[in-house]
Amino acid sequence: MKIYLELFWIFFKIGAFTLGGGYAMVPLIQNEIVEKKKWIEKEDFVDMLALAQSSPGALAVNTAVFTGYKVKGISGALITSSAGLLPSIVVIWILAAFFTNFQNNVYVVKAFKAIRPMVTALIAVSVYTIGKQAKINKVTIWLVILVAGMVAYLKFPPIAIIIAGIIAGNLYMSLKGGKE
Q1: How many Å apart are CA 164 and CA 166, to the nearest integer?
Q2: 27 with 95: CB under 8 angstroms?
């Protein structure tokens, strides 16, 4: 029972106090689950994150589901996803009721402008941390640059890149014998 409460509290806290969505949550989830609790190994977390990113749905919810499932099975997945979603549901419900009264308030506008760089910093930390653990080399760096350019400048559909990546990764692993 204690582990369920810990799972709930970790994901509720992260859901309640993280702005910027899933990528901003990743370093906090990693710190709690991998570093502090040691429920998941670093390599497994990176793999889980890759799976969460390529699965349909929000990254934060997918990460919560995969973490909960890895730690305590289906019941853990239900706990972590509920805990991660609950703060957002409550906040959106409250904001929807009152936002029309405050959306043009100068202080609200300034607060949202101040939050943007912090969210960007959290996402940058997440990219750096995951990149360090993902065994990045020159080929993968060029691959990231190529894909980013294809999406940003050539307007290549991200789903096509994901499907191509799945196919290429499977072909590569079958040619290598699945040893890496």
Answers
A1: 5
A2: no
